[in-house]
Amino acid sequence: MFHIRRQHGAPRARSGRRTRAATRTTARALAVILAFGAIFSVATAASAQTDQVVFRKTSGVFHFDGAGQVITYTFLVVNGPVTATQISVTDSDIGPISCPATSLAPNASMECVAQYTTTSADVTAGAASNSATLTLTEVTGTRIVRQESVTIPYSGLVPSLIVGKTGASFFTRPGEVLPYTYQVVNGPLGVVGITVVDDQIGAVSCPSSILTPGGRMTCTAQYTVTEADVLAGVIVNTATVTGTSTTGQPVSQRASASVPFGNNNWLSLTKQATPSQFSGPGEVLTYTYRLISAVTGLTNVSLVDSKIGPVPCPSTEMPRLQPLVCTAQYTTTQADVVAGGVANTVFAMGERAEGAIITRRTTAAVPYTGSAPALRLSKIPSPTTFTSPGQVITYGYRITNGAVEVSGVSLVDDRLGAVACPATSLPPGGTMDCLAQYTATEGDITAGSIQNTATVTANPPAGPPVTATAGTEVVAMPAAGAIALEKVGLSETFTAAGETITYVYRVRNPSQVLLSGVSLVDDRLGAITCPFTTLVPGATMVCTAQYTTTAADVAAGSIVNTAAATATPPTGVTVRSLSQARVSFEDIAGAISLVKAATPATFAAPGQTITYVYRVTNPSRLALSGIRLVDDRLGAITCPSTTLAPGATMACPAQYTTTAADVLIGSVWNTAAVTAVPAVGAPVASAAKAYVIFRPASLL
């Protein structure tokens, strides 16, 4: 047996045994910590960052105009660095919100969309206010709740335009130029893009395309008389003024003017029918025309009746103030019965001695007094305006019968087709109401209105069918352009000057119109480059930019910057959205830890190799550089790297060969020390010891 001579007494030896046992226990505990250290580190880091969840609620409108308006809300959920489950979003007015998923991976995001219809209570309150609540559970078991509120005010104002139109007092011949004047008066909201179009003339020249609230302007145009106008005996034309309010709502109004044929009082013309009424088709009406000229030597006198044609007269010349009497006859028709009478116009023309033409016209009406079938149709839409595709318009039709019972009543709308009614017959004077619905389309929004005409047809006991028509127009008032911006800094804190912070900007078009000229500017970073400069309705794009922290930011304690997104809708003013982000300075200290393990735990003779593994860990949130490891027996130890990121670990191996001196001492006891320089603050250090016991082979 090989004996060891110890230099200490028995009591000290017992103390040494206790020390070695404690050392072995400590070594085993360190091995467990090394094996599971990464798990402990991840759990600690995750639980420390549960406050990085972002929840935003936005709407694409800045106000609403009344009860029944649909508002679309978007709910943005951005997860933090830990997997989240059991995600739910609930709105105080809408209830549970449907989202694409109920769980999110670390740093993932999603959008949830819901709609709310405004009520009369919102109008009374002056705003539609509601809040949304996000709840989720992290895999660490932490439950997170976020709340976001949005208030949309009630506008209370309705844009309007009024147009008045005036023309000449009369016209006398083809080629004559008639002036027209259009007065445009604005209502309580500013209106832009104003145009005036006359159905006979076309575009009308106006001094401006913009009117402030209560403003007015005068527009002018000219029209050249045609042969058809002379034959018609009157020029009737309609002007339409359109524009867009500063709230983005289309505005439209119409006005008409009539200019009759006939120039002066130089020629008098009267027309009388005998009899003065008729009771059925086939009756003969005799018309007597009486002309008196106030000029001398009127020649080439002629008369033309719109129902009869040229009227024969005893002479084509008229002495001054001498009456010229002409007669003609007309036989009534079934069409006259259906029309309810005979209305015709006679035109008189003569030539003065100097060659000037003078004209005159007059009209006579002979009513039908017999019993005749007749129908009247009225049509009312509800609502009278629409804002988006998919909106339902309800039409109410009222059919009123005349003096004769009718059967086979049918109602057809040129957009809806056949309309169901409660009955197919009506007694004299009877009425009935019918209903139908129509769903607005994208084409209707583009056209600016829904125009449709309904026709009712019925069969009287005798004679041809009778009909009546009614038309309506429902004006499109699409939502105004809007833009929404959300800005998020991917880092919520910074620890020193020189750090890079990445900002993510989410630009969205929540409106129903195309946006162009989209630009993004950050008050710290300047103009931000984005993938697109146009956004279709509902589209979203993401832009990114980076900022490097400064010593001034550290001194200020935070970085606060604001971004602005702007765009131009097809009509109305430029739209704008702001979003602010805050990144706070966090003063943290660096740290380093060292664990040292030896294999094997015992040696039996000189010359035996002992392998040491040094596990160096950066438990801080600061990067470490200049890492240096030194063992008091082995000297400087080579490691895989001289830097460690926050939370990172590396293992550095080294070997030692036992000596006879180690055998005499009975153990190998050595200490290692590691030092490093954190990104901020003073250098850090850590030390660790290892104890390898000499155990002769005979004792193993």
Describe this structure in words.
Strands 23-29-28-25-26 form a five-stranded mixed β-sheet. It has a five-stranded mixed β-sheet with strand order 31-37-36-33-34. The two termini are 13 Å apart. The chain is mainly beta and 700 residues long. 11% of the residues lie in helices and 50% in strands.
SSE-based structural type: mainly beta
Low-confidence stretches: 1-50
What is the spatial order of strands in the main beta sheet? Answer: 23-29-28-25-26
Largest sheet at a glance?
A: 5 strands, mixed
The pLDDT mean sits at: 85
Helix count, per DSSP?
7
Strand content: over 45%
What is the distance, rounded to the nearest whole angstrom, between the alpha carbons of the first and last residues? Answer: 13 Å
- Residues in helix, %: 10-25%
**Overall number of strands:** 45
Shape: elongated
Q: What is the rounded Rg?
A: 48 Å
